[in-house]
Amino acid sequence: MGPGIIRAIGAHDALGARLGEQAGFDAIWSSGLEISASHGVPDAGILTMTEMLSVAGWMAGAVSIPVIADCDAGYGNTTNVAHMVRRFEAAGVAGVCIEDKVFPKMNSFMPGPQKLVPIEEFAGKIEAAKYAQRNPAFVVIGRIEALIAGLDLDDALRRGRVYADAGADAVLIHAKDTSPERILAFLGAWDREKPVVVVPTTYWSVTGSDLERAGARMVIYANHGLRAAVQAVTETFQAIRRADGTATVEECIASLETIFALQNVPQMLADADRHSTRSNSQPTDPPVEVESVYESPEP
Amino acid sequence: MGPGIIRAIGAHDALGARLGEQAGFDAIWSSGLEISASHGVPDAGILTMTEMLSVAGWMAGAVSIPVIADCDAGYGNTTNVAHMVRRFEAAGVAGVCIEDKVFPKMNSFMPGPQKLVPIEEFAGKIEAAKYAQRNPAFVVIGRIEALIAGLDLDDALRRGRVYADAGADAVLIHAKDTSPERILAFLGAWDREKPVVVVPTTYWSVTGSDLERAGARMVIYANHGLRAAVQAVTETFQAIRRADGTATVEECIASLETIFALQNVPQMLADADRHSTRSNSQPTDPPVEVESVYESPEP
Amino acid sequence: MGPGIIRAIGAHDALGARLGEQAGFDAIWSSGLEISASHGVPDAGILTMTEMLSVAGWMAGAVSIPVIADCDAGYGNTTNVAHMVRRFEAAGVAGVCIEDKVFPKMNSFMPGPQKLVPIEEFAGKIEAAKYAQRNPAFVVIGRIEALIAGLDLDDALRRGRVYADAGADAVLIHAKDTSPERILAFLGAWDREKPVVVVPTTYWSVTGSDLERAGARMVIYANHGLRAAVQAVTETFQAIRRADGTATVEECIASLETIFALQNVPQMLADADRHSTRSNSQPTDPPVEVESVYESPEP
Amino acid sequence: MGPGIIRAIGAHDALGARLGEQAGFDAIWSSGLEISASHGVPDAGILTMTEMLSVAGWMAGAVSIPVIADCDAGYGNTTNVAHMVRRFEAAGVAGVCIEDKVFPKMNSFMPGPQKLVPIEEFAGKIEAAKYAQRNPAFVVIGRIEALIAGLDLDDALRRGRVYADAGADAVLIHAKDTSPERILAFLGAWDREKPVVVVPTTYWSVTGSDLERAGARMVIYANHGLRAAVQAVTETFQAIRRADGTATVEECIASLETIFALQNVPQMLADADRHSTRSNSQPTDPPVEVESVYESPEP
Fold first, then answer.
1. Under an 8 A CB cutoff, do C298 and A299 touch?
2. What is the ipTM of this complex?
3. Per residue in D26-45, pLDDT tens?
4. How many Å separate Cα D270 from the centre of its chain?
5. In Å, how far is A272's CA from the nearest CA of chain D?
6. What is the DSSP string of B4-29?
7. What digits encode the pLDDT tens for the residues A58-110?
8. Burial class (CB in 10 A: 0-12, 13-18, 19+), C137
9. Rounded Cα distance, D122 and D171, in Å
10. Contact B82 C271 (CB under 8 A)
11. Would an 8 Å CB–CB cutoff place D103 in contact with chain B?
12. DSSP conformation class of D118
């Protein structure tokens, strides 16, 4: 990671990743919550690694900025983590983030108790992840859920230090506080070289610059694209129902031309044109051959 | 199809399908354009049947209203169509729509020429689709691209009649006119019992009731959810960039509680609770057994 | 399950399932060990449910006899089990088998300790599975790994009874003994109505009829197809290397005609012919139309 | 490609690829026929690129020798070919082979007519493939089906030259002759620098060395693993049926230990051990923390 805070944006498909890149974000967060929601299921370890990987791979192919994949608790034990790292790496993802909750994890913002694994068990997963990677640039982020699970700042710091020392390239300190106070305290007390990542979903009054000044190296806006889409789609669908047609929404939604541009249609047409001009310019096929074996011409 | 016009809404994932059901639409259109766009690729036969099927299957599992899958040109010849029908049927999709363009098809709204297959070749695909289905309720819609390809109303009607007579459960007449005139003329001249489906993407001044009066039996708003989402996500991402944080967007986007509800989190928690109470109420495990083989308790 | 013992054969792809059906077996066992091996990974919870499901779904589409899917420990907790059941059911699989080991499970024949979950936790999974299914004919088998984990016959029976009473449609008693003695003792002591399934991988001296007389209702030959294939492919590859060509193996391997028959090529050709004759017999396409919009005929 | 002929072996899953590597072959052919057969469907463009890609990707992850993917006719037009190349490249596949038949292709050994695309149309696909690749080492093989389609040697040579000149890294000349005569004539007349690949499925009397002397640079034994497996599995299943058990086949099939070795179980156990010793040696978790938030210990 370079100087300055990295601003990452959550997405749940390649299109969202491309919109994030277009808006100027530095990285894409392949969000477990967003992807689960887009599949209509809770963010509770229900989607498999395969399903998460598929989405992250499409994202990685769609943007030139790094994609960091939210990999829950690593989908099992150290063997699963090692396998996971190799597969995400092969899919072109820049890095993964695993958290110290038991599998199957529950979304950190859901009601109910949260269960952590012992520190050393999770440190073993970090080690396994780093050991498995083949590309030295691949990043493994260790996510600390101590504050989410009801533990205190000391617990969070102790865990973070062990994860950093076990080889994590960064630690992510998560919280669902509405004030950034404890996160800022964590940043102030952090005594390792490894960067700290934060996710101000609930303590949203803080800015990226605030967090940078406090020592954070990466901030993730993890689920706002999904939430914006849900709001807009809900309203648009209701408006279509009310008007019994789309006349009232046409002005408020992206044009087909915008969609085509996001799909790289112009590039596709240019590429198709390049490779088809050849066939026009070099008519070397003997007609006699055609008649006997080619697909029969139209009647 | 029952009496009255069926109002269908396009979607590209299970979440969008659920939003469509929630808004009161009668059916979901698993849109090739939307699904392609969500993967960041043109709607030009690039995504495979497998990828389209996966999304349609997730939609079918997420809603109780019918899902109709946009199946492009049927992904090949009659063999491919037959295989496709069996797979979409097995995935719980209520029906498929195939169009009379050559494979790989180009989106009907994209610039450039559109190529059709001969009428009888496409009628063979309709036959193959109907022959392949196992569930008698499965629906095959034959989509007429004659007007899109620059042919006239008579051509469109001639094609539609052959498709209907070949067994299509409905025909879809497509156009990119800004006026509904030709579509209304088609409906007026239609002389088969089979229902007609319309897609007023460009001639959006017409209402569903207008179309019903003219004889249409199904109207598809094919891509408005995607376009609403793109607009909203773009604006939200820009706002986050401008404010260097999410404070200004929090009021405008769906809450996490809304997202959780759409994911059926309450149902999942209730189900989990039901099956876990059992273990609390019947402590029949002998401790001696536990010690020897269970996962070692935490230190 | 009907009268008489059901003889099931393991497979790892649709072709193997079809060979099993052709040989006269009553059911197919979608084997976790076989499928893991065919992907080149250990049978240790590395492949995801998605990957296992995909194979089982292909099998179910390829044969008319029931496919029972080996679903390891259920891929997580009761929520995962419920999700799993709905997905396997939707894929056309006749039933699933889950085992009372911790996730991620290790293959029962691998060296090293085996960890079980508490009885009641597993009974909760059985309940969750039965509660989730929609098709009343769907079968849930509860697999008892007590003998594999080093516990005794009484432990195995106690577990089996709780699983049967929790709703399992059958219990599978597994062992890696070389003698059938303990399995026969289990069958003799079994005092529930629910059928018992056995897997004589290591105690292979016993016959299906022996097991039937002892009270077993289903016997699974779980991995012999894979092992036969590995042996034959290894020898064939070595022979090709030795001879620097395939001359010496041609007599020993299936012909291409045999392969085509297993792929249902004759059925495909007949179907293709049926739907294409139509286009030959009804040449209603006006040539003028063709010239303007059809794919240009060959030069 | 280096000096000497490359001997490649066909496979349809990662396990087969590993057996090929183990037997000393130089490369793996991810065979369309084998993969189709393993899914129980004809080799006729029924499986999608996604399904073929998935298998090829697993193979590439399982072996250290190159995997060449049989990509039929490129799954569509130049746009599809470009997309295909990027996806196979990303999956770690060393190269692809596309053939000059129309989509959907029919297996070259199946009865019935074979349709080719015009030379220049296929040359455009070669160009598109080479233009799309990002890794300079990625290989695109242009497969000539002229002899399969009933054309003569001059046609085959003319096509091969155009494909080579269009950028193909090699050409594959296919035939279903029982004598190698025409293939040897093709090799004798070949006047481009690009290597020639041959597939002696039907003219199997020839050896790899014969082909090398004649100028071939790669020989593919395309489907013998599948055919060996089908033969052995059929016989084994019949033997199990006859004996009502596996006693008679135990000696003839690979042991579970052999299977475990092919799955890399020993490596997995060593890796797991490495990362778990850490947790045993550093018991730094404070018990007080455990009680409040960890998963409850067993009763």
1. no
2. 0.93
3. 999 999 999 999 999 999 99
4. 30
5. 6
6. S-EEEEEESSHHHHHHHHHTT-SEEE
7. 999 999 999 999 999 999 999 999 999 999 999 999 999 999 999 999 999 99
8. exposed
9. 12
10. yes
11. yes
12. P
